[in-house]
Amino acid sequence: MSLTPAQQFDELSKKTSRPLVLLPAFPSADAIATAYALALWFETKEKEVTVAGDTLLQDKEALSFLANPRDLRGAITGARDFVLSFNTERNKIIDVRTETLPEELRIYLTPEHGIIDPRDFSFIPAKFTFDLAIVIGAVDKERLGNIFEHNADIFYEMPIINIDNHSDNELFGQLNLVDVTASSAAEILADIFFSLAPETLPESVAESLLAGIITATDSFQKKNTTPKSLHLASLLMQHGADQQKIVRSLYKTQPLHLLKLWGKAMAQVKWNEELRLIWSLVGIEDLVHARAHIDDLPAVLEKIKGNYASGQLFVLLSPETPASVRVIIKAQSRELLRSTLPLFPEAHLEGETLIASLPADSLEKAEALLFEKLTPKTPRA
Q: Per-10-residue mean pLDDT for the chain, 381 residues long?
């Protein structure tokens, strides 16, 4: 009889001694909270766990109220040893010493007899110090950014657990815990934990998981909230997760400059019925008055998106340089957001947000260019 996904997760978790939890560049708050929950759970099992992500050290500030795992990193360092091997069958090495120079490390070897034959040397990569990788909230390996680019061998030399709820996930793990009906990665992991040993779930783990579900569902207001989400949230609260503390920390302590900028953007919101598009223009004077920065706009757009359930696309336009305008786009579905990406040359995704630029010296010109790109073209007869 084959093992269930939860049982497979349990088996891999028991075997590991150095798990590595990986996050995509620009992870969602749900992904970070889920990574925290998993790492804290591993720590209770006395596992030496590491959480790593390209932008984790900056992005984690929004969840500073949660208990932090011990080892959080913005890059993977010291992941594996490399062995310099010397065949001593015919000529033993009687002394080894090293010298560290500004841009060089020298290794001095003293042979027992004569000179050293270069053919007796070999350079061998050792095993990774980690023995299990768990990727959270990434639809493919490339979303890990530099973490994957600089450590691609990880994905070929150790088991991979893939936890995600996006429909375009490429199922790149040996164990794929991917559920597109789940509200969040936190919901998927909570379901796994409760199916294994619910009575032993620590309070800190429960609180991180509840924070993940709350951020993904906007405190159970979004349409991705399901009866299962609510049931698991209830169970997590029974295990000590403080919903009021989470909501207060996430929503009631917003920086004043962000609230001011949100108000400015909301006052200028526009609606296009045909495209089901919500958009707003944020001028330099709006940023100055709010004492905000253009990099605050994705957070403002997320708040706008939460207020308009009927919208499909959500856009903010703001001057970037005298000759260009920043475009920030969010969508009701990841598929729609990805389909918009080719319309904007050199655009890129930061988590659930598309960032692009338009060549325009005014917001009005950028607005016209935006509609030119988004409006479906009618083929000529």
A: 90 95 91 97 96 89 91 83 78 86 86 79 76 95 91 88 94 96 96 89 96 91 88 95 91 77 90 92 94 90 80 94 95 87 88 91 95 71 41
Contact 260, 295 (CB under 8 A): no
Tell which residue, 183, 139, 137, has the closest CA to residue 22. 137
For the chain, how big is the Rg over CA atoms in Å? 25
Closest by CA to 217, choosing from 188, 192, 184, 243, is: 184
Query: Which ranges in the chain belong to alpha helices (H)?
Result: 5-15, 29-44, 56-59, 146-149, 154-157, 185-196, 203-217, 227-238, 243-251, 256-266, 284-290, 297-307, 334-340, 363-374
**The pLDDT value given to residue 126:** 67
Contact of 115 with 190, CB cutoff 8 Å: no
pTM: predicted TM-score of the whole model, two decimal places: 0.73
* pLDDT for position 144: 92
Q: 217: closest CA among 240, 185, 178? A: 185
**What does the alpha-carbon distance between residue 237 and residue 194 come to, in Å, rounded to a whole number?**
13
Beta-strand pair 160-164/132-136 = parallel
> How far is it, in rounded angstroms, from Cα 169 to Cα 303?
26
Q: How far apart are CA 228 and CA 232, in angstroms?
A: 6
| Domains defined along the chain, listed by start | 5-77+129-250 (3.90.1640.10), 80-126 (no CATH), 256-374 (3.10.310.30)
Q: Are 133 and 125 in contact (CB under 8 A)?
A: no
Residue 269, both tokens? 């919101």
Which two three-digit tokens encode residue 351? 């988590």
8 A C-beta contact, residue 38 and residue 134: yes
DSSP for 133-195, written as a single string: EEEES-SSGGGGTHHHHT-TTHHHHS-EEEEE--TT----SSEEEE-TTSS-HHHHHHHHHHH
271 torsion bin: left (phi>0), alpha (psi -120 to 50), beta (else): beta
